[in-house]
Amino acid sequence: MATNKKILEQMLREPNNVRYSDLLKICEAFFGKPRQSGTSHTIFKTPWLGDPRINIQNDKGKAKAYQVRQVLLAIDKLKERENEH
Predict the structure, then answer these.
(1) Residue-wise over 14-25: b if at least 16 C-beta within 10 A, else e?
(2) How many Cβ atoms from other residues are within 10 Å of residue 8's Cβ?
(3) Lowest CB count within 10 Å: 9, 65, 67, 72, which one?
(4) Which residues contact residue 41 at a Cβ distance below 8 angstroms, ignoring those fewer than 6 apart?
(5) Predicted confidence band at 1 (pLDDT cuts at 50, 70, 90)?
(6) What is the pLDDT of residues 27-46, one digit of tens each?
(7) Long-range pairs of 46-49 with CB within 8 A, sequence gap ≥ 24
(8) Which of 81, 20, 79 is nearest to 55 (CA)?
């Protein structure tokens, strides 16, 4: 089982080669349980309005690269907000 740090490194290095289950694990670690799941989209609540939104899809076991990049942007924004306070 990959650690969150290793998954994040993989996401940065190869956003087009990330397993959906790994992306889901990272989203839950940073944003909590999804507010919607069970449909084609899994949506996470963020402490801000607007983009980047956290909306991920399972594409035959893989995460979509643009969604991986959106999650990385959201994590950066979350860290910035934490540093401001």
Answers:
(1) ebeebebebbbb
(2) 18
(3) 9
(4) 55, 56, 57
(5) low
(6) 999 999 998 777 788 999 88
(7) 46/74, 46/78, 47/78, 47/81, 48/77, 48/81
(8) 20
Q: List % helix, strand, coil for the chain (3-state, nearest 5).
A: 50, 15, 35
Cβ contact 46:53 at 8 Å: yes
| Placement of tokens 């507010």 in the chain | 35
Rounded to an integer, what distance in angstroms lies between the CA atom of residue 52 and that of residue 69?
10
pLDDT at position 48: 86
> Pairing relation of β-strands 62-63 and 41-44?
unpaired
Contact call for residues 70 and 53 (beta carbons, < 8 A): yes
Enumerate the β-bridge partners of residue 36: 43
